Amino acid sequence: MATVNFAATSLLPSDFCSGNRSFSGCSVSCTKLVYRRRTVSMCVASNSTGTSATVPEKPEIELEFIGPKPSGDGSYPVERAKEISGEKLLRNIMLDNKIELYATYGKVMNCGGGGSCGTCIVEVLEGKDLLNERTNAELRYLKKKPESWRLACQTIVGNKENSGKVVVQRIPQWKK
């Protein structure tokens, strides 16, 4: 069951909220409501032209996280997530979606996303072009690793303009 709470806030003069008005191409419809023995005025403004300003939809990145070890039937477990392009680090996406990022040692001894320990290594299998360039911390920790390996704490997913799919292998060092 939803609960609606009203706060006593006056954005317009009280004499303005007494019906329907139009000015400068906008129309305002006002209603008085009684909530818990208090009268509350609510006004809604809209364009009189009938067109509404729509907020453009932000591009999304689909992510697939492949588990480090195969399950009993030989297939690798896959977990999925969606995020708005350019807003989060790969590490935060994984932690927010409760997707395992660290091996046993890394769970205890990680740097918390500072890029100074190298315990959040992932391998990007698809969608490398949807991620930022390697940072200086990644160049330092991953200089002898394959180009597809990244530090999740340094990897920004998307650039606020692109959309697509990124496939990530979790804990790639376990594949050996």
UniProtKB/TrEMBL annotation:
Cellular compartments per GO CC: mitochondrion
Taxonomic placement: Eukaryota, Viridiplantae, Streptophyta, Embryophyta, Tracheophyta
Cofactor: [2Fe-2S] cluster
Pfam families from the UniProt entry: Fer2
UniProt family annotation: Belongs to the adrenodoxin/putidaredoxin family.
Protein's name according to its UniProt entry: 2Fe-2S ferredoxin-type domain-containing protein
A GO MF label: 2 iron, 2 sulfur cluster binding
Segment forming the signal sequence: none
SUPFAM superfamilies hit by this protein: 2Fe-2S ferredoxin-like (SSF54292)
UniProt entry keywords in alphabetical sequence: 2Fe-2S, Iron, Iron-sulfur, Metal-binding
